[in-house]
Amino acid sequence: MTFRIGIRLKLLFLSLFLFAIPWLGYQYVWELESYLRVGQEQTLVGTARAVATALHERPTLFNKQASYLTDVKPGTDLYAHQIIDPIQLDGRLQDWFDYRHLAVHYDAKYLLDDVANYRAEDLNFTHMIGIYGDYLYAYFEVHDDYIKMRPRNNLRIDLNDHLYIALTTPEGEFKRYIVANYQPGWLNTYELTDNLESNRPQKPEPRIQGHWRNHIPGRDNSGSGYNIEIRIPLNMLADNIAFAIVDVDENIDQGAPNNSALENQILRIGTANPNQPDSLGTLLVPSPEIEKIIKGLQYSGARIWVLDKHRRVMARSGDILQSTGMNTTLRDNTASDPQWWQNGWQYIEQEWLLPLYYKILTKPPSEFIDELQDAYALEGKDIESALTGKPDALWRLTPDNKAVILSATHPIWIDGTVMGAVVVEQTTHGIRTLRNKALEKLFNVILAVMFSGTIVLFLFASRMSFRIRNLRNQTEAAIDHNGKIIGNIPLSKTQDEIGDLSRTFHNVLGKLSQYHYYLENMASRLSHELRTPVAIVKSSMENLAMQPQSETSQAYVNRAQEGIARLSQILNKMSEASRLENALQSTDTETFNLHELLQGCLLGYQLAYPENHFDLQSDYPKATLKGSPDLFVQMLDKITANATEFSPKEETINFKLQQQANQLILRIINVGAPLPSDMQHQLFDSMVSVRKEAHSTAPHLGIGLYIAKIIAEYHQGKISIDNYSAKDGRASGVEVRIIFPIH
Amino acid sequence: MSKRIALIEDDPAIRENYTAALQRQGYTVLSFADRPSAESAFSQRLPDLAIIDIGLQNEIDGGFALCQQLRGLSKTLPIIFFTARDNDFDTICGLRMGADDYLTKDISLPHLIARIAALFRRSELLLTPEHQEDIVQQGKLRMDSNRMTVNWQEQPIELTVTEFWMLHAIAKYAGHVKSRQQLMDESRMVVDDTTITSHIKRIRKKFMQLDPEFDSIETVYGMGYRWKRSV
After folding, report:
1. Per-residue pLDDT tens for B152-170?
2. If we measure between CA atoms, which residue out of B81, B102, B92, B82 comes closest to residue B201?
3. Nearest to A539 among B18, B191, B222 (CB)
């Protein structure tokens, strides 16, 4: 049996096209998403423009110095970062840990004086400043192979390692400070005199506070150095500042007393030269003015930056994690008292569907790496573009590829020049959430459609194939294996093609069975029709025979009478089968002993056919059958007549009665010529004969076996005829086998 | 006074042939082609014997109707159905109508004449004493071959001519098996085995209506029938 593809399977396969629906839906939603993105971009550019509008032509908002510089020098022009958590002034640097990457390392590049034999281990430091509250915080992580604290008895504060600070006050004064400690601990800060040539302290400056902590060096003096943590109130300074670390090492070679600067080696590394007011670096403190303006925008659902033209952040507000761009909270449309099915649906959705969907979809992460968390200078094509005066927008991925951030920029104009830019940022989370929600709904619908569609198609196909199979079975059941029509298929009432087919089969079978009936009754009707003309001829001949005839005409009359007698015999035989069928309808059944019947028959046959021997082998003497013994004998007569006719003289005709399972098998075997192979199944049909014409002393119409079959079937038997070869292969012949069920 | 035989047959050739043959035997033959003409004639005067074809022109069962009418007019009038229809159903129907014999048209003329003669003899001899040589006595069975009367346990049994001759052939020599061929010859007809079996079955039934215990006609499988010797 080869593998078949049934209608059901085909339709199921066709229903795979339903899977195109989610793809289409997905495409559609994707299109929608790109529209939304464009929309968001426009909105964001609009927001940037609006924010910029509030900042145009307001020079006061910008640092006088920093923002007007034509260029900035990193490390010299300082940027105060916004510190998130309070800084504890203890000389330990854990508080700064999150901002370490923003610190600047100061080494040979930042030497303030020309030094011939500078070695990195002599002095280098890491430094950064930040803003928290109203203070400017700074730390210095100084690596110094030799720490020289301020001696207790020394009035000078510059003959030891110290921190030099120079700044301009908001009033425009130039002030200098030195931090010099006797010992690690709270800072001692001194304001210097206004004489720029002198480093003499004028008075302590308590507002500048902090902590000095020495490192614990390793055995080989590695890691030697100190930390300084410091804060300066913001109201002390404007926007110029310089820090310098001054490393004073004693000249050990000369062994001179350490009270003169000359005998000391002094190394100065700093952000800028603190001795000249005009050499200070700029300090960019995120502008509180702008902050205020922008603070009002923190509800805009975006993160907003204001940059100066050096791309340094002057102000920022909002949180990128909250800036999802769209309000995606769905209306809470659940009724006050949800129905059970709503609960059930929710459960199914939450437990089954959504996990499945989110195997494909991605939820916008609530956490992602924001590289601009602490940025003090922004970069990007859009910012470049804005700083040249063109608003722009940019999509970018976060470094962890988890989120897409859209930024829109707009220049800030002052007096026709670009003084800065507004950067507005949002993630696309809103759109993605919206898209996900849309897709969830879409998937729900699609799943429902696909599921129900497949089910419906499957049911439909099953129904169809069931009906077609049913029709096939009915059609098969309507004819037996010989092709004889034994019934008809029930008339279908369905008004479709299968129903039509069924009705057509019904009609065809009906017509065919009528035709079969016509053919089967042909013989008897023919004989019936011929009987009258035969009777005419017969009676005429008999009348003629009764009259005196001449010798010649008497011969003719005799011949005619012989012929007509034969014709009459033929007609009798032709209607024999239909007469038998008639008789069967009115036959009463009785139970008879088959074994005894066979014995009796064989005795009779021995008398009737003395030229043959008859032998009965029965291992079942109690075998009984229900039916008509007379008819049964008729059947045996027909079979035996055939057997003797085809059997050579003196050969034995064997009757064998056997029992197998719940069947009685009667075999009648005669030695002789085998059957032509193609005729075996037709021999039991009416009017089929394989006799050679040479045998035709009596008319043979092939009715005998047909009658045998009718009688066998009346006894619920199955009759078959086949070629037979003995086990020893010596004799071959023909075997008639009749199988009766035992009840 | 020759016997008057009514022949009702729609086929003119057969009608003429049989008329001629019967007339040659010295019978007066009244032939009719259809039922109405026959009925009107019978209402005038009854024949001594009627030979009726069942299918009469456009009436499929015209012969049966005619038979019923005749039986209504006379209980003893011999009636022979003479038809091309040889199936069991029609045979049983015809005999139920009260016909004395049911013959198919392929019966030869001499056989037909023999039967007609037997029927006439029966009606004639009913009133005359029996001759011992015509009597067959087998236990409870008593047959008079001349008068064609059958008695079982002193009760008369109505048999058709065919059945009488068959039974006579079987019962004449009790214990002897008569093959079907022999029975055919005795009852002067050419039929097939099924017809013989049907006849035997009908004979048995007629006896069993009178005596449910009747089992004297034995089937000898493969050979034929025999009359069981009464013990």
Report:
1. 988 999 888 889 999 999 9
2. B92
3. B18
